[in-house]
Amino acid sequence: MPLNNYEIVIGLEIHIQAKTASKMFNADANAFGNNANTQASYITLAHPGTLPRVNKKAINLAIQLGLALGCRINQHCYFDRKNYFYPDLPKGFQTTQDNQPICIGGTVEIETEAGIKNIRLNRIHMEEDAGKSIHDLDDTHSMLDLNRAGTPLFELVTEPDLRSADEAVKTFAAIQKLTEYLGTSNAVMQQGNLRCDANISVRKKGATEYGTRCEIKNLNSFKFLRKAVNYEAQRQIKILESGGEIMQETRGFDTEKEITYTQRTKENAHDYRYFPEPDLAPIHITDRHLADLEAAMPELPKTKLQRFKSQYKLSDYDADLLSESMPLANYFEEVAQISQQPKKAANWILNSLKSYLNEAELTFSANIIAAQQLADIIKLVEDEKVNIGAAKSQLFPQLINNPTANALNIAKKLDILVGQSENLGTEMVKQIIAQNPKQVELYTKHGKKNLLGFFMGKVMKQAKGKLNPKQAEKIIKQLLNNES
Predict the structure, then answer these.
(1) What are the Cα distances from residue 306, in Å, to 106, 312, 313, 323, 341?
(2) Are residues 342 and 282 in the same domain?
(3) Domain membership flag for residue 294
(4) DSSP 384-445
C-alpha cells in the first residue's frame, strides 16, 4: 500500500517555563545562564526537613494562559507526586498535577489550507522542571546542572487532533506567540523556555481506531519538530507495510542525522505511583481572583491583529507580520502614533528594518533604532526634506549606528537635505544637458521622450540626495523643452 494511503495522528505535550523570579516551590532564583549549580538550595535538593511553598505568580500565569485558551479553570485543585528515578531529578519524584489539573479543555486556533482549525486541549497542568544532564563535557562521565530543577513548568496537552507536521508546527508557534504576549514565559526555545514532546501514530486513511503511538521527546525548534514528525511517520508506515508491529516507546530525535531513535519503553501511569503531595495544601481560587486576573490580561494576538487592520487600515499580510510578537507590535504602534503615518511606519519596519535584521542575523529589538528616530525619518521624507532613496541608503543606516542621534542633525551632517532653492537644481540640469548633446538632440529633435529617465538618473546621481525627484523632473522638462 502506498505511503500516502496512511494518515498521521499527532498530539503535542508543550512544556512552558513560567516567567517568574523564583522557582515553583521555593525562593531559589529562576534565571538562565548562571554558573552551574548556583541556583539549587536545600529545598530544591529536597534535603530532609525542608518543605515546599507554592509560587503564587506561577499559579496566576497558569490561570491567565488557560483563560486565553478558553479552558475551564479548576478552582479546587492540588499537586501530586510523580515517582521515578532520573539523575537530574534530585528529589526522586516530581511535584506535578495528575487528577486535578488547574486548566481543563480549551482550544488552540490555527490556520490551515482548508481554513481555521481548532485544536482541542485536554489540559494544562503545573509542575516543576528537572535539572539538566550534560553528556559532552567529559568522555566517561555525565555532568548535572541543577539550576533548572524546580523551575515552574506548565504542560499543555493537546488531543490527537493534528494531522500533519505543518499543523503541529503551527500549533507550537501559536503557543509560543500567546505565551510571549501574556508574559507567561520568555518563550525562547534556545534557552529551554519552550519545548515539546510529539506523540505520533499512523493509521490507514478511513480508519477510526488510533495506531500505536511513539513519543518523541524534547523538541526545541519548529524545524526539529517538523523533521521529527515526518521521519517518525515514515518509519512507522514502513514497519507496518513490511508486516511489522509498532512498539509503544519513548524516542529521541538526533538533530545531526535527522532520525528518531529508541530511548526507553513507554511507562504507564501506574508505574509512576501518583499520590497527592502531602506537603502542599490544595489550591482554592475564588471567583473574584479569577475576574481580577482576566481583567488584567493584555490584548491577545488575534484581537490585536483585527485592531491593526481596522484602526490602521493595514493589509492582512502586514497586520499579521506586525502582530507577530508583542515587542514588535508595540514598536509599530509607537512609530505610527509619533509619525501619524501608520502605513509608512509599517513599510519601513517590514522592509528596511526587517532587511537589516535578516542581513545582520539579529532578532527584533526596539533598541536597534528608536521609535522616535524612525518616525523622524518618515517625517523628513514626507516633508520632502530628504529623498526616500537617501533616507534608506544613508540616513537609516547612520541612525542604526547612533541610536541616540537626532535624524535631522544626521541628515545635515550627511549633506542629504533637499535643496530648497530651484537654482541648485537648475544649475545641475544645465550642466548635465551640456555634457550630453547627443541625447538632448534625440529627445528634442527625434521625439525620444524615454530619454527623460536617462537625464533623471544623471541629475539624481550628481545631486546625491539633495534634490527632490519631482522638482528635478520639472526642471529637466522645462530646460529640454527650451532646447527644442
Answers:
(1) 22, 10, 10, 10, 19
(2) no
(3) no
(4) TSS-HHHIIIIIHHHHHH-TT--HHHHHHHHT-SPP--HHHHHHHHHHHHHH-HHHHHHHHH
Residues 314 and 428 both lie in one domain: no
Phi, psi of 219 (to 5 degrees): -95, 120
* Same domain (yes/no): 209, 105: yes
How many independent structural domains does the chain possess? 3
Last residue of a domain, one of 289, 322, 351: 289
What is the number of alpha carbons within 13 Å of residue 378 lying toward its C-beta? 24
Q: Distance of alpha carbon 204 from its chain centroid, rounded?
A: 35
152, exposed or middle or buried, with CB in 10 Å at 0-12, 13-18, 19+? buried
Cell of 309: 487592520
Spatial CA neighbour of 40 closest among 84, 91, 80:
91
Domain that holds residue 33: 3-289
| Averages of pLDDT over each 10 residues, the chain, 484 residues | 82 98 96 93 90 96 98 98 89 94 98 94 97 88 93 98 98 97 94 96 95 95 97 96 94 96 75 93 97 97 96 96 94 97 97 92 86 96 88 92 88 79 66 81 75 79 70 77 66
Residue 323: which H helix or E strand, with range?
none
Cα separation, 218 vs 251, whole angstroms = 10
On whether both 392 and 429 belong to a single domain, the answer is no
Query: 463 with 330, same domain?
Result: no
Instruction: Give pairs for 457-464: CB < 8 Å, separation 24+.
Output: 458/432, 459/425, 459/428, 459/429, 459/432, 460/389, 462/428, 462/431, 462/432, 463/419, 463/425, 463/428, 464/390, 464/415, 464/416
Residue from 359, 372, 364 nearest 399 by CA = 372
Domain boundary among 414, 442, 468: 414
Is the domain of 439 the same as that of 358?
no
The helix-helix angle for 469-483 and 422-435 (nearest 10°) equals: 50
